[in-house]
């Protein structure tokens, strides 16, 4: 199975004089408060946009980020957000001791306790991009925002959490609505990739969506599964010692897009996604990727591209790529230093 990136969903536009910028990330930064047994165990920079830009920046993939925060935003970030002085930054509380259902599904209960402004089409630059990533966390992506993204980006990857989250009016608890009722359904035939966790995938019809775009369902320590038209396949995980699952799906999506921008096939790019996801669960908050590991991954990606160019028969053998990436992944050993406050009992031993 090849599962190559779907062709671009470009709308007709005049011939380009200026080359595309590479990746546009749209989604608000937030403050994450991690709570266990009634106590705050960590406060960190959050938001899918922050985890994704961390992966892209670390992998030297140039990106532009559109994000809104309030006057109280606390973090130094590489990609400056738009500050809305009269608003507060989006805040999520993540409760790690509620709602664990015994079979590893709900690893945390999330409450959005404050929400910054939505991102409007006019907040997004008018340039063209190779990839767009619609990665809201607190309802900040509007249907018209996504419409603008599909117009200016060759391929758009969407995290379903940006589309199907609803928030309890009293305590902000995150609820999910069916994708068909989300108000975004009419735009989805124009996107390239839809990423969902296995819990979120229950809120869409995968059989229907895989006809419209490439669907990627992540499944924690089990890796991920890709669906496109009549093809589907599982892409294996990397072993990790889980400390905090926050941001794993975001880093996964970052790794997937790094692979696609580099010209890898979808399964190979998903392997990079699994790699960055597995490293992220070993950290509380934003992972700092080991420089040696990043260099080894870059080298392996280049080797893989050469190999695929030489022989199309290698295209489907992503197991070999997995074997080559595994040692690179284990050069990143600082997980031993992390306090293990948020282990959920679903981690793997190396
Ligand atoms: N315990 C783990 N061991 C190894 N890899 C993991 C583990 N947890 C997550 N991953 C990797 O990260 C990817 C994304 O994880 P997951 O499916 O938990 O996403 P998610 O629920 O969207 O995460 P989040 O909402 O916390 O960002 C997985 O497909 C897998 O590759
Ligand atoms: O920082 C986290 C992270 O981005 C998660 O993917 C998202 O589900 C949460 O809402 C957010 O607080």
From TrEMBL:
Classification via InterPro entries: Carboh/pur_kinase_PfkB_CS, PfkB_Carbo_kinase, PfkB_dom
Entry keyword set: ATP-binding, Kinase, Nucleotide-binding, Transferase
GO biological process: myo-inositol hexakisphosphate biosynthetic process
Superkingdom, taxonomy of origin: Eukaryota
Keyword Transferase: yes
Span of domain Carbohydrate kinase PfkB: 214-285
Entry similarity comment: Belongs to the carbohydrate kinase PfkB family.
The protein, known as: Inositol 3-kinase
Natural source organism: Arabidopsis thaliana x Arabidopsis arenosa
């Amino acid at each position: 199975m090849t599962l190559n990136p779907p062709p671009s969903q470009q709308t007709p536009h005049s011939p380009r004089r200026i080359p595309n910028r590479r990746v546009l990330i749209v989604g608000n930064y937030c403050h994450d408060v991690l709570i266990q047994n009634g106590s705050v165990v960590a406060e960190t920079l959050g938001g899918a946009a922050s985890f994704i830009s961390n992966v892209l920046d670390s992998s030297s993939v140039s990106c532009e980020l559109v994000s809104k925060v309030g006057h109280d935003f606390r973090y130094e970030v590489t990609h400056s957000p738009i500050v809305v002085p009269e608003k507060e930054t989006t805040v999520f509380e993540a409760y790690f001791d509620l709602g664990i259902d015994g079979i590893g599904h709900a690893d945390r209960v999330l409450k959005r306790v404050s929400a910054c402004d939505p991102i409007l089409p006019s907040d997004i630059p008018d340039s063209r991009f190779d990839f767009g990533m619609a990665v809201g966390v607190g309802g900040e992506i509007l249907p018209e925002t996504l419409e603008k993204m599909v117009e200016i980006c060759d391929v758009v990857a969407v995290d379903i959490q940006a589309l199907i989250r609803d928030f309890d009016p009293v305590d902000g608890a995150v609820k999910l609505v069916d994708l068909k009722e989300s108000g975004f359904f009419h735009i989805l035939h124009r996107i390239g990739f839809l990423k969902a966790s296995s819990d979120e995938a229950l809120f869409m019809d995968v059989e229907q969506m895989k006809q419209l775009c490439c669907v990627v369902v992540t499944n924690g320590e089990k890796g991920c599964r890709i669906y496109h038209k009549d093809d589907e396949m599982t892409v294996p995980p990397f072993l990790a010692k889980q400390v905090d699952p926050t941001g794993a799906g975001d880093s996964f999506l970052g790794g997937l897009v790094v692979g696609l921008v580099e010209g890898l096939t979808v399964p190979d790019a998903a392997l990079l996604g699994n790699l960055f996801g597995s490293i992220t669960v070993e950290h509380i908050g934003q992972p700092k990727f080991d420089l040696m590991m990043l260099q080894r991954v870059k080298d392996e990606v280049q080797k893989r591209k050469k190999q695929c160019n030489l022989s199309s028969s290698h295209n489907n053998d992503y197991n070999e790529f997995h074997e080559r990436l595994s040692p690179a992944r284990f050069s990143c050993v600082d997980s031993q230093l992390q306090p293990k406050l948020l282990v959920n009992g679903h981690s793997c031993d190396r």
